[in-house]
Each structure stands twice: as C-alpha cells, then as structure tokens.
Specification:
The complex is a heterodimer of chains A (675) and B (405). Chain A is mainly α. Helices cover 70% and strands 3% of the residues of chain A. Chain A has 3 domains: 297 residues, ABC transporter involved in vitamin B12 uptake, BtuC (Orthogonal Bundle), CATH 1.10.3470; 302 residues, ABC transporter involved in vitamin B12 uptake, BtuC; 34 residues, no CATH class. The N and C termini of chain B lie far apart (49 Å). In chain B, helix 9 links the parallel strand 7 and strand 8.
Chain lengths: 675, 405
C-alpha cells in the first residue's frame, strides 16, 4: 500500500467534491453568487430519498405525501429530483434573483442564510433517527494500482466526471450555454440582444441542483448523513471550484477528485512521516488550496459588482449622552431584578454585542467580509484558559494576553487578505474557520483532551467578578456588571472610531479603494488597522465568552458560531453600533432567544426563523433592522417632535429637514433596471 | 431578586398538566395498547430534571429521553412510583451549544429539582458546573468528557467510552491474545484521549504494538481509514465509532476483504445498524454494557423493558435501540436510588443516597457501587462492567462474561 493506492481510495469523497464544485461554478457563472448551501440542499434530497425508499413517504418542507408502497430506486430518484428542481428554483427566485445587482456582502449573507435555514429545516423535518441508504451502484471490491476498493467509488467518480464533461460541452458548444455565459458577463448587452438573463440563470441553477442531488443520492450509501458535516462538505468543493477559477466546470470537477484523493493520501503521509501534524491536516488542505489559488490566480478570478456597489450607509453616530445614560441605567437596574434566565440572556447579549462590534468595524466600516470572527475569539478564549489555568497568570493580565494573541492572528491573516475582497474573502475566511477549528481547537495539546479547558473565574484584589460561585444564584450580578461595563466601553469606542478621521478613512476605502488612494489614503494600512481593531474586539468578546462558559471545548467557537454571528449582526445592522447591540440580542442565547423559549415555545426553531429573517433583510434592507428603524421610525418621531415646536423653530428646522431627507433616501441606482 | 410571575405560572401550569397526564394514566399513551394501571402512584410527584440534546445539527438523541420516559410511565403505573409518589421529568432540550446547556441548567436550578439526569449533552460540563454549584447531583446517562467523568457529585451508571474500552482491553489480551492492535479512533479531543488511554492500558498489559489511526467522525468515506487501520496486519482492530458510522465501517471492511477481528462499541448493536450492515456484520465483536432484548430475551428486566417500550412508547421489540435501553436502564436504576433517599426527597438526601450506594442491583446491568472505585481513573462511574458479544448470522451471541476493568 503506497501513497498512490491511498489516493485512489479517496475517489469516493472526491466525487462529491467534484459534484458540488460543478454546482458552485455553474451558479457563480450564472448569477455571481457563491452558494454555500449546496451541501444542505443535497442532504435534504438524500434524506428524502432514504425515507421514500424505506417507507414510501415523501417528506416535504411542509407536510408529506404517503405513497403507500415502497417505490423502486428509479422512481425514488425521479421524485426526489423533481422536488429538488422545484426547491432550487424557489430558492433562486426568492433569495438570489432579487440580489442580482446587490453588493457582495448581501449575496454572501443570503447564501449563508439559505445554508443555515435549509440545515435547520432538515433537523426539523427529518429529526435525528440515523438513516442509512442501501447500496445503489454495484460495490464488489476491485483492485486498482495496488488498492482494493469497492467498485462503486470508481463509478461515482465516473458519474461526476460525466456530468462535468456534459455541462462543459453544453456551456461551450451549445448556443444556450454560450448565451448563459454571455449574459453572466454583460447583462445589458444580453438584454439588448433579446436574451433573458434571469431565465438563463434559473436554468443554470436547476442544472446545478440536479447534479448535486443525483450525485448526493448515489454517494449516500458510503457516507455519514449527519447534517452538520454534510453541509460543510462545501468547503473542499469551494477549493476545487477556485482551482477551476470559478469558470471552468471541467477543471473544477477534476480538481475535486484530486482533492479527495489527496486528503485520503494524507492518511498515508501522516503515518509515514510522524513529524507532520497528526490532526487537522485533512481539513487544512482545502484551506491551503483556497489561499494558494486566491494568491496565485486572484486577479484572474471573475468578480462581479465591483464598480458600483450600493453599500449600506454607516450613520455618523451622534453620541447623545442622555439616551445612552438612560439605557445604561436601565440595564444596571435591570440586572439584579431579572430572573436567572433573563439575566443570563442579557449577559449573553452583552458578550455577543462586543463580538458583533468587531464585525461592524471589519465589515461595516472597512468593507471586508469575514466568516471566521469566532475563530479569532476562540484563539483568545483558549489562550486565556492556557495562561490562567495552566500558567496561573492573574486577572487583568490574562485577558490582555489573550486579546493580544487574537490581534496577532488577525493581523497575520489580514496581510494575505489584502489582495482579496468580496466573495473570495468570504470563501477564504470560511475555509480558515474550518481549518482553525480542526487544526487548533481540536488539537488535544491545545484543548486538554478529556478534561477540556477550564477557565478560572476572574477576580481582582480578592473580589470575584465571576459568573458563578458562592451562595449567589447563577449568573452572578457582579459578572453582569462586568460585562455591561466592557460592552458600553467598546460600544463608545467604536462610535468614537466612526466619528474619528480613521473611521472616515475606513469608509472611504470601503467605498472605493482606488478613489481613496487617489485622495491620498493608504488603503493597505487602513485595512490592516481595521483588521487589528476588529481582531482585538473579537478577542475581548472571546475572553468574555470564555469567562461566561467556564469550560471550553472545540465546539465553543466552531465554524457555525461564526456563521451565527454574521447572521445576528447583519440582521441587527452591520454598519452601526446600535446594529451591533441589536445583533447581540439576536445571537444564540441572547434576549431574543430567551424570549422565543420562554414566551413563544419556538426555541427549537430559532435558527430557522433567524436565517429566514436574514434572507429577507439581505434583500429588503441591507443595513439591517437598525437601519429600518433609522429610516422609518426616527424621522417620524422627529416629525412628531417638530409639530409641537413654534413657527420660528420650524423655519430653522426646515433646512435640517432637507438635509435629513437627503441622507435617508436610498441611493439612486444608476443602472438600467434589468429583466 | 424577584421572579417574573409568568415563569412561575408557566412552571406551575406545566406541573399541573404533567400531573394531570400522569393521573389520567393509560388514556394518553401514544399506542393503543397501554394497559390499565396495575399499581398506580398517586402521591405528590417527585420532579427530576431531564436535559437532552435534540433537534441539533451536531447530533440529536431523542431515544434516550423516550427510553427514560417509558421507564417513568412504567414505574408510575405498574410499580406504584417511588414510595407511592410518581416521578415526573422536567424536560429541557439543548442543541450542543454551551449557551443552551447553561440555559437548561439554570432552569433546573430554578425548578429546585433534587436530581438532574442528562441523556447526552455535548456541552455537559457547562451545565454541570451550574447544577453542582446549586448542590444538585447530576447523572449523565452517556458520559463523554470533562466533568462527566471526573466531577464531584456526578454519578454515571454506564461507563461510556472509557468503560467499554477498559473491558475491551481485557478481552483483547486474554481471549484474542493479540500482540498487535490498531485503534480506529474518532478524531475529536475526547475521542483521541480515549484512544490514548486505551493504548496505555493495552501497553501496560504487554501488548507490544498499539497503533492509532484517526478519522474524522464526519468522514464521507471510511475505505481509506479502514485500509490504513489494517495496514501491517494487526491481530485486532478496536473501532471507536458509534452508530450509524459502524455500519459504514463494517461494510468497508467487508468490501476490502478484511479478515482481522474488529471490535465495536455498544451502539453498533442497534437493530438499524445491523440491518444496514447486513452480512458485513457477521464475525464482528461488540462490547455491551447492558442486557438487551437481542442477547437476553428471558431476563425479567429485559421483559420489563420490552413491555414498557411497547405499552408506553409504541416501540416494537425489534425497534429498540441501544439508546432506548440506555435511557430506560439508567432511569430505572435512578428510581431505585430515589427510593433510598428517605421520605423527603431533596438534593441533599439524593446525593447522600447516591454516595452510599454499594453493591446495589443495577437495572439491565451488573451491580453498582458509587464510591469512585468501579472504574480506574474515572471516579464518576458506578458500574464499569462490560460483556462482549459476537454477531453470528445477524444475531448477537455472548462471547464473554461480565468483566470489569
């Protein structure tokens, strides 16, 4: 058994990467979206197939159809495929068609929203009984190049390549395929030629959905059908898609097969060469691939919507002392009065608000998308555990070291990221989140194996600030105040940043790097400063989270928590401090979560509700709920206030009213509204 | 600190509904076959907490709750409860995240339950810290990491991974007389730690060559890792993956023509798993911690399990999974402890009864003793004994007696 034999053994996984990569390329070419949700939608189809084949019941997103008999394999595949096509079409029409000309952030966010929503739907509709799918392709063993493997792996690889080849020919040889590529590159010209870009894009989506579902079903007998893991198979597929430069289906598919083989080959290499890292290398490989591809071929990757991005406005945040003081006082009084559940919810909201603020700085101000904020927070959390539990470092020093560690990593990651932007940055940060989780958080040397990583309670001059201890109810009010102080301080700091010259420079860079450079702003330095501040904030949040939980595991800062954070802060409003505070309440375990559990009994559907909310907000209101409030509610309140003033004041107020209406109207879209 | 009236009202309403449901007894059972209550408990209910991970993308385990609830129904309707008092669960669902575990733990502390049982909770230690700080004993049905295995005031009636692998070590050295063993381990920190501790035990028992091959629990294809595990022709491969991965591993092994003896953990005995694996399961050894309908159909405890699962959970005998059995068995054992907690069942009296348990009869299991000595290195486990069974013709056949580490 040598390296090559192990590579052959990886063809099964390679086939699914190839299929997903094909789907990603098709869809990106047609509508400029990198769809993170293919894994989830494929799994939905697979589980449908499993139930249909076994029990004759077709489970739908809402309700089900009982066929009464157990259908044949062919009929099952047909039915599931028909459903998958409808489902994909619906997702495209509702979530992505409206975002054709939207900035990359909105498209990323909608894609993440779909991924999380479909995954939540899977958990809700299919529950948890483990499902297995009986073999579909013949699987007697066969020996190839010294490796014995079930022959269905070879058939799978062949099927994936066949689909890729067919789609490659379709897109380069047929008129329809060429029209799709043309329409994707220049929508206006396509319309002038009488083509319908949306229609063409829809067809691409349907083809992608079909390929992904069929290959998913064929591969199901060999893989574990667990929601979380299947969904994240998209990450290696993204790597393969990037090798295909997001435009060649054939190259992407081959790259997927090779990647699957290489990952399997790593099993051989890590045993042969014990100096190689013994864990996480398998998941680290896609990340390395993504980074390599972006650095090597970054400029040649097709980008969309870079010229005229309609970005959500970042309000100037006039700091009004009275409402702020009132809010802080209300929180301070409320903390001891609330029940344990609500107090815990408030504390979680405060911690999450700090984490949201880090994304406000990075994405809202500087314009860089990151799907790995919680990974930075996790580095801080585990550093805190190591230095305080193992190293015995006392309270204010321990968290400072932790925050420094997070900042250092954030800067390290930001340097190569300078050349990357938009969707590609989203891809690289997602791959990074997975890699960090596997490499660092799952490394027993870092996270302490069976006993986990404890975080001793913070105390200063003998006075405990911790969340638990003594005779007091959990969570202790003192910890609540600690979190409140940190949250208010960071919120004020970020608001001050916005009003400071550095904040304006960040927004200039966000708007257009070239224009900013022309105005004499060093874009690279601004981006790095933004990354440093954002990482430091993530570190602070991660430290608070570590103190709150008291015991860390690799799941504490997983990839899905990063995605959940993005959901929360985007819903709240990613460009403002108030948006971050609102986002904090929406984060898992925050005030809204508590309300859903206590008042509405909808706790189990929290993720589903929030993801759907996210998609709606991405389409309707890019500056989140906070933006909605600002646009609709605040002017009306001001109007109300104005009606009670004297005529003199009205005369003075008029120019103010004119200015205000200018800032609150939506920016006019200079593009011709396309089909 | 005042408690909002809504919360108290909600809990009171839930308690009333639960009591009402328990009082109405037979009528509300899911199946049509719930029998008349032969010995109904009518006293003041004992409410114990039940935290379980369900509806989560990272893993859902509702069968644990189903089993435990069926046990409670059986106890309340056929055995007169605990000293005439019915047992009710205060249920709370977690999703694997620490926030959810903290929320549920908080809820239990507010409800002032005398005991909290948890089915499976990936963030169990977060909940345990809060529950233990309130002086309430904690019983994880399936202990996996951290305080589950080493916490004070924590009591596990099943050995979980550490328990099973200690038993395996004995069988591997004494029966198989293996000189070379490979462990196919789950590539997560608890999984790797468990593999390494088994490696230590095997090495101490003079097994000269113990290798560990790691694979991600979310692997799409086990062919490569199974091949790697068989590299070098070991005498035995110890698999540390649970259902439903075990059927995939069994099938991989069969496709690859691997003849090496493979040993699996107890959840691989699940009927769904054996069915999915088909002929690939034959010859496999499985470590079990409890009696089951497949291995001991004539045992009185097993008969109770089968009857109760059918009557109160509408689960047929061939659908009973190891999770059902885990939940049912541990719940019944715990009810026995409650019976020794005195007239006033409080957290303190339950804790005392747990600590004082010595050579008590376990339900569906060997006897247990909760003084920290049952399983070396894992003080929370009260019963670390296991049995090995072999699959022949798709059915399990005993291959060893109860052994303790």
């Amino acid at each position: 058994m040598d390296f090559l034999s192990f590579v052959i053994l990886g063809l099964g996984s390679g086939a699914i990467y190839a299929a997903f990569a094909t789907g990603i390329v098709l869809v990106h070419r047609a509508s400029g979206v990198i769809h993170f949700g293919f894994g989830a939608t494929a799994l939905f189809g697979v589980l449908q197939y499993a139930d249909l084949r076994r029990h004759g019941i077709l489970v739908l997103p809402v309700g089900h159809i009982d066929l009464g008999t157990e259908p044949s394999v062919a009929l099952c595949v047909l039915l599931v495929l028909a459903h998958a096509l409808l489902f994909t079409l619906l997702i495209y029409l509702l979530c992505f068609a409206p975002l054709h000309a939207a900035p990359p952030l909105a498209r990323v966010v909608a894609s993440v929203g779909v991924m999380l929503a479909v995954q939540a739907l899977i958990v809700a509709r299919f529950g948890s009984a483990p499902r297995s799918v009986a073999a579909i392709l013949p699987n007697k063993p066969v020996t190839v190049l010294g490796a014995t493997l079930p022959r269905d792996r070879l058939y799978l690889a062949a099927v994936a390549l066949l689909f890729a080849a067919a789609l490659h020919l379709w897109s380069t040889r047929t008129r329809f395929g060429k029209a799709t590529r043309g329409a994707a590159e220049n929508e206006k010209a396509a319309i002038l030629l009488g083509l319908r870009p949306r229609w063409l894009a829809a067809v691409s989506w349907l083809l992608a959905g079909a390929v992904v579902t069929v290959v998913g079903i064929l591969i199901a007998p060999t893989t574990s059908l667990e929601a979380g893991s299947f969904t994240l198979l998209i990450v290696p597929a993204l790597g393969a898609a990037l090798v295909g430069r997001l435009s060649s289906v054939a190259v992407a598919a081959v790259a997927g097969l090779v990647l699957g083989g290489l990952q399997s080959g790593l099993l051989y290499l890590t045993r042969e060469f014990s100096w190689l890292p013994q864990n996480g290398l398998k998941q680290g490989l896609p990340f390395l691939l993504v980074v390599l591809m972006l650095m090597v071929a970054g400029r040649r990757l097709p980008g969309r919507g870079t010229a005229q991005d309609r970005l959500p406005p970042a309000p100037a945040g006039r700091l009004r002392p009275v409402p702020i003081a009132a809010a802080v006082a209300a929180a301070a009084i409320g903390l001891p009065l609330l029940s344990s559940q609500w107090r815990l919810g408030m504390i979680t909201s405060g911690v999450a608000a700090v984490l949201c603020l880090s994304l406000v700085v990075l994405t809202g101000f500087v314009g860089q998308i990151s799907l790995a904020q919680m990974s930075l927070a996790g580095v801080a959390g585990f550093t805190l555990s190591k230095v305080t539990a193992d190293g015995g470092v006392p309270f204010p020093v321990g968290p400072l070291i932790a925050v420094l560690a997070a900042t250092a990593l954030g800067l390290l990651v930001a340097v190569p990221a300078l050349r990357v932007r938009g969707l590609h940055l989203a891809v690289v940060t997602l791959a990074a989140a997975v890699a960090i989780e596997e490499f660092i958080f799952k490394n027993p040397k870092v996270t302490g194996g069976l006993s986990g990583s404890t975080v001793p309670q913070p105390e200063i001059f003998g006075f405990s600030l911790g969340i638990r201890g003594g005779a007091e109810d959990f969570p202790r009010v003192t910890f609540g105040y600690f979190v409140l102080v940190v949250t208010v301080a960071t919120a004020l700091a970020v608001a001050a940043l916005r009003r400071h010259e550095l904040g304006r420079r960040m927004l200039a860079v966000r708007g257009s790097e070239r224009a900013a450079a022309a105005a004499g702003i060093n874009a690279a330095r601004v981006k790095l400063t933004g990354a440093a501040i954002s990482s430091a904030l993530a570190g602070v949040g991660g430290t608070l989270l570590a103190y709150q939980q008291g015991q860390l595991s690799y799941a504490s800062y997983s990839t899905f928590t990063s995605l959940g954070l993005l959901v929360a802060v985007y819903l709240g409003g990613i460009t403002s401090v108030s948006g971050a505070l609102l986002g904090g309440t929406l984060y898992s375990g925050g005030l809204v979560s508590v309300a859903l559990h206590e008042w509405a009994g909808l706790g189990d559907y929290e993720t589903l509700i929030l993801s759907i909310g996210l998609i709606i907000v991405a389409i309707r209101s890019p500056d989140g709920l906070a933006g909605l409030t600002r646009q609709r509610l605040t002017p009306r309140l001001r109007q109300l206030a104005r009606r009670t003033t004297t005529t003199e004041s009205i005369a003075v107020a008029e120019p103010i009213a004119v200015r205000e209406s200018t800032t609150t109207t939506k920016e006019v879209n200079p593009h011709v509204a396309a089909g | 600190m005042t408690r909002p009236k809504r919360l108290v009202g909600g809990l009171a309403l839930a308690a009333m509904l639960l009591s009402g449901a328990a009082a109405c007894g037979d009528g509300e059972a899911e199946g049509t076959g719930a029998p008349a209550a032969a010995n109904k408990a009518t006293g003041e209910p004992i409410r114990i907490g039940f935290i379980n991970q369900e509806q989560a993308a990272s893993g859902s385990f509702p069968d644990l709750r189903t089993g435990a609830s069926a046990a409670a129904e059986y106890l309340n309707n056929q055995q007169g409860g605990v000293d005439g008092r019915p047992v009710e669960f205060v249920n709370c669902t977690v999703d694997g995240s620490p926030e959810a575990s903290q929320r549920c733990a908080n809820q239990m502390v507010e409800a002032k339950v005398p005991l909290v049982i948890s089915g499976l909770d990936f963030s169990g230690p977060s909940a345990t810290a809060i529950i233990r700080a309130a002086g309430i004993p904690y019983v994880p049905i399936l202990p996996i990491q951290g305080t589950d295995l080493t916490g004070d005031g924590v009591f596990a009636f099943l050995g979980g991974s550490p328990g099973q692998f200690a038993g395996v070590a004995g069988y591997v050295t004494d029966e198989i007389k293996a000189g070379k063993v490979t462990i196919l381990a789950n590539d997560t920190p608890p999984g790797v730690a468990a593999a390494e501790s088994l490696q230590k035990v095997l090495t101490a028992k003079k097994v000269s060559d113990v290798q560990i091959v790691k694979e991600s629990p979310t692997a799409t294809d086990f062919t490569a890792s199974v091949t790697a595990a068989n590299d070098g022709s070991p005498d035995a491969i110890v698999v540390m993956f649970v259902s439903p991965s075990c059927s995939l591993i069994m099938q991989s092994a069969q496709s690859l023509g691997i003849r090496t003896q493979m040993i699996y953990p107890s959840s691989c005995l699940d009927p769904a798993n054996l069915e999915a694996a088909g002929a690939a399961a034959d010859g496999a050894l499985i470590t079990t911690e409890q009696l089951s309908p497949q291995t001991d159909p004539d045992d009185p405890d097993v008969s109770t399990l089968v009857t109760a699962m059918k009557d109160y959970a509408d689960v047929a005998e061939d659908e009973i999974t190891s999770s059902h059995t885990n939940g049912f068995g541990v719940a019944m054992t715990v009810f026995g402890v409650l019976g020794r907690a005195g007239k006033d069942v409080t957290a303190a009296s339950v804790l005392k009864a747990l600590k004082a348990s010595k050579d008590q009869d376990g339900f569906l299991d060997d006897s247990y003793t909760c003084d920290g000595t049952a399983l070396t290195g894992v003080p929370t486990v009260c019963n670390g004994s296991v049995r090995i069974v072999r699959i022949e013709g798709g059915k399990p056949v005993p291959a060893s007696d109860w052994t303790t580490s």
